Amino acid sequence: MSILVLLCCNLVHNLALHQKATQSSENSQLGAAGHAVDGKRDASFQRGSCTHTEEESDPWWRVDLGNEYTIAAVTVTNRDEHENMLDGAEIWIGNSIDTNNIKNRCAVISHIPKGRTFYFSCSPAKGRYVTVLLRGSKKVLSLCEVEVFVPNYAEDSTKRPLPNVALKGEATQSSTLSGAAASKAIDGRRNSYYSDWFCSHTAEGQTDPWWRLDLRQTFVIVSIKVTNRGDCCAERLDGAEIRVGNSLQNNGNDNPRCATISHIRAGKTSTYQCDGGSMEGRFVNVVIPGKSKTLTLCEVEVYVAPAGKSL
User: Where does the signal peptide begin and end (predicted)?
Assistant: First the structure.
């Protein structure tokens, strides 16, 4: 599966590339630790592109970056078979090689589909070593690529944000109330007053009203920000689902669910990170399931994985 990732100015090169990697055990030379830092996102173990430990308790894999860095993100590529083996693995960052003395947990991998690369934001955290640890008995740890990124703004007080790719997209919706076009939600303004004509609005009382953003190409989507209406009716957005994918079946509403909006206070902006760290897709949908629903959005922002290449 091809993954197109935005080449962004905010991350520098992959620090893990060709660095020294070790692991708790080695199943065979075919599964050497260094295969996860060879610069290849090839998901085939048989082609010698992935690591593999023995079956053991708490297997781990570690890369030595050579120096301490402020780490912004880690990407992990899962193998193209046995995709559930990575479920529950933890990504740790620190200056200790003792797995019981690691200071900063970047993320927990809930699930990465087979052959896919997921992006995990690390807050950021400081450390020389990046460790992937899979807790439990009778576990096998297998990784096909681990990439480690540092933000350019580590030395830059301006701390420029990642680009909002929604601004270059095209929006549509299931219906439109007079003057409240779908494009109002990607105009770059978080003005939350519908009466000022800054928000999208479907017809009232619809069944399953939806709003869809076409990003024009496929991205690895890391987070989505949604601004709710501020002058009334904040509860209308409760229960809305954010869906991400490449299909237009059922107007895109059958794509995998990224997150569910429980509640956003009037006029506020909430950030949603897709389950598992990231999702791949060209289309971002917001849909409210149910009868007699009305969908109003004052801004939708989409931020993508700033990795250094496309596959």
Answer: 1-16
Q: Which of 74, 129, 119 is nearest to 97 (CA)?
A: 129
* Residues 148, 186 share a domain: no
CA 172, 178, 180, 181 dihedral sign is: positive
Asked if 235 and 293 touch (Cβ cutoff 8 Å), the reply is no
Instruction: Please answer whether residues 225 and 270 qualify as being in contact, where contact means their C-beta atoms are separated by less than 8 angstroms.
Output: yes
- Clarify whether residues 117 and 189 are in a common domain: no
User: What number is the average pLDDT over the span 121-138?
Assistant: 90
Residues 6+ apart with CB under 8 A from 301: 164, 166, 224, 225, 226
User: Could you say which DSSP state residue 123 is in?
Assistant: E
Q: Are residues 211 and 92 in the same domain?
A: no
Mean pLDDT of 190-217: 93
Whether 136 maps to a domain, the answer reads yes
Rg (CA), the chain: 21
126 and 225 within one domain: no
Q: Is the per-residue pLDDT at 57 higher than 60?
A: yes
More confident call, 43 vs 5: 43
Tell me the torsion sign for CA atoms 29, 311, 83, 62.
positive
pTM as predicted:
0.55
